[in-house]
Design a protein that fits this description.
This protein is an all-alpha fold and 302 residues long. The chain has a two-stranded antiparallel ribbon with strand order 1-2. The longest helix is centred in the N-terminal third of the chain and has 35 residues. It is globular.
């Protein structure tokens, strides 16, 4: 059959196949270029000695040497520990606040106010992480920041936020909570719409306790939404870079140097692409393992 000639058998299937290919090809090519190729490139680099500061050195295969370097690097484990401390600090707060907002918006009535509240929730999500970091620098500036202005009004006096190790960590956490609590609220609000209305009404007839309705009626329907939040927020925090870098650059010292900031330092300040690639691949494996654990222990479908 000549090229481009419609076959005599199943012409509709032929047309559908070509149309599907035409629609899917751009997405597949974009995914391959943006997602798959960099991952494969990092995987190859992780097995090579590749330092950008030594262009004349041969790029040789070193096996698992870069991975052993990472596993015996205390700075890497310190950055990973800070990242998990950050994770278990902000995510429970974001889920709790998001659930409270979702329950308020799930109540019947006040449709105009709810629409305005939902639109307001999108604003932090639409803000670029780098901009969030710059806003954080302004809010927590010691001399003219909004946070110290409020503390001065209540008589607490100015606090050194970004120059203190503990306060800098808290400031970055507060900015992350501000940006991502609306995301949790919208996901949980979508989950609440899956609760059958008749079940909620029957539960209200059985008990007047709002907590028992949430615990035994609404929460089981929210477990898939909570699983999605845990997976997405964990992956996002493990690769969180822009906000931290623009706000504190990982300092003071290494107080806010999360693992992604540390990998950037190894890759583009020490210029050791091989070790940085091994760290990135280990982080990818860790993200996949955590996602599987969330699905196994949290996800329940009703």
């Amino acid at each position: 059959m000549p090229s481009g000639t419609k076959p005599a058998v199943f012409p509709t299937l032929w047309n559908n196949g070509r149309a599907a290919f035409a629609f899917l090809a751009p997405a597949v090519v974009a995914l391959a270029l943006i997602g798959i190729f960099p991952t494969v490139f990092a995987l190859v680099n992780s097995f090579r000695r590749y330092n950008l500061a030594r262009p004349r050195d041969p790029i040789s295969f070193v096996g698992f040497e870069n991975y052993l370097t990472v596993l015996y690097d205390p700075s890497f484990w310190g950055a990973l520990g800070r990242t998990f401390t950050f994770l278990i600090t902000v995510v429970p707060i974001q889920i709790a606040l998001g659930l409270a907002i979702a329950l308020l918006l799930h109540k019947p009535g006040l449709s105009g106010f709810k629409l305005l509240a939902r639109l307001s929730l999108v604003i932090p999500l639409a803000t670029a992480p780098a901009v969030v970091g710059l806003i954080g620098r302004l809010i927590f500036n010691r001399d003219f920041g909004v946070a110290n202005a409020i503390l001065t009004l209540v008589g607490s006096g100015p606090i050194e936020w970004l120059g203190d190790t503990t306060n800098a960590f808290i400031a970055v956490a507060l900015m992350d909570i501000w940006q991502w609590t609306p995301f949790c609220a919208l996901v949980l609000l979508a989950g609440l719409t899956m609760v059958p209305t008749e079940i909620e009404e029957a539960a209200r007839l059985e008990t007047r306790s709002r907590w028992q309705i949430v615990r035994y009626v609404q929460l089981p329907f929210l477990l898939p939404s909570i699983t999605v939040i845990l997976i997405l927020r964990t992956a996002d925090i493990l690769k969180m870079f822009d906000t931290v870098f623009t706000m504190t650059r990982g300092g003071p010292g290494a107080a806010t140097e999360l693992v992604s900031v540390y990998i950037q330092r190894v890759g583009f300040r020490v210029f050791d692409q091989g070790v940085a690639s091994a760290q990135a691949i280990l982080l990818l494996i860790l993200t996949i393992i955590l996602a599987r654990l969330y699905i196994k222990f949290v996800y329940r479908e009703i």
